[in-house]
Structures are given as C-alpha cells and as structure tokens.
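Suppose you are handed a protein chain with no further information: no name, no annotation, nothing but its sequence. What can you learn? This example shows the usual starting point.
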Amino acid sequence: MTKDEKQKLYTVRWYVRERWGDANSQRDVIELLTNLLEPDATPDNRPSVSTGGQRLLWCPFAQTNFPRAISRGSYASGYPKGAVVHFTAGRRDGLASAISYQVEQGYLYFVIDKDGDISQNFPLDSWGYHAGQSSYPGLSGTVSDELVGIEIQCAGRLTKDGNNYKTWFGTNVDPADVRRIPQKTENQEEGYYEKYTDAQEEALTRLVLWLHANNPDIFKLDNVVGHDEVSPGRKNDPGGALSKTMRDFRGFIKQQVA
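A reasonable first move is to predict its three-dimensional structure. Written in structure tokens, the prediction is:
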C-alpha cells in the first residue's frame, strides 16, 4: 500500500468514526473509496493526480463543471501550503454566478454556496490571485502563490439602520442571520456581519481537512488563515461571519486530526 492510499484510508476512517450520520460524509467516503478502487474515474475526465502521481489535484466532493480559473503559475511546492478564508461580500446567488465573476476578474479560488456546495475550477498544483497585498509569518511576499483561496458566499460586514441590517449593496439581511461582534477580538473587527450558514461552516471544515489529508507534508493547518489576518486593516473577512476567531478555528480543525 502506498503512502497516498494509506492517507486516503485514514480519511475514510475519520469520516466513518466522526461523521457517518451525515449524508454528505457518506458521499465523500464513497467517492474516496471509488478513487482508490477506480483511479481513472475522475471529474469531467480531468487529470486527478499530480505529475508525480501522488496527490489528487481535484477535490472528489467538489463540483467541477465550470469555466477554468486563470492560473498565474505553479506552486513552488506543487501544492498549496495552506488556505485563506474569505467571504465574497456579495449575494448568495449560486456557484455558477460566483465562478463567472471569478473568471472575469482573473482570480482563482474555491467557492462555497449557502447550501455548502463546493466548486473547483483549477487543479491544486496551480495558483492564482485572490488575496491581493498580503503577508503572513513563515511565507515569503504576498500569499496568493502559496495559499489557496476559499471564498464563501456571504455579504460580510453590514450596516445597522434602525432595526434593519443592510449590505453594502442595499439589501436587508434577516436579523437571525446577523452576528454582532461587540468589540475587536483577534481577527474579528467590531460590527455586524452576515453569518456563514451551518452548511457553509461544515463544508469549509470538510474541505480544509481534505486539503490537509490529501497532502499533509505540504498543506499545514497552522496556515489556514483569514484574509483579515494576512491583510489586516485592509480586509475584514471572514471576521464575524465565521462563528469562531481564526485562531479558534485552527484549534478546532487540528483537534479533528489529533
């Protein structure tokens, strides 16, 4: 058994132990086992593994039938060292719309819609812009060419107007979907935010854990960061959209693989 096959089986065991009651997890297990048994069965017949034949380049539970993202080159390590968590600061209008915008703007990132569906339109050995001016300890220069982007459909920061909570583009958000951060806490700026849905947080966790399990020698959970951590003062995502600070989220995901 190869190291790659063994890692996939460890991932299957984790899903069976921790998430077997969840229908999405059952689907993920079936897809991982299918990949082990039928390695040539890949999304849209796209290559699933790196040139060296060791790591998957396409997430088995992501939707992939989208126009390709614009790549700026290959990761120096052949795979991202971690991920940057964003919110789109836009409408929750589905994966196709988000990917269309991404391609038009020349960016590259995963997208998670309100129902927890995940899109991927690039292989994991390729990087593209998503974080702008940014830096993080242990990484050189801006982070887009070292960390993959994960955009979560969410309006982000809101303005309170009487009893209403408004997006920057003028729509009201249900108060049940709003989280208030009363004062700055680590990466979370004070204010009101549209919350990520439960399905989005579960999908984010599932994706990050898979990215790590797929290549644990390179993708480090300590490098799962917020846009507001790598561009402090310039960006405020995920801020209060995420139910935890980014430090707590890193602690949470590390517990899942302990």
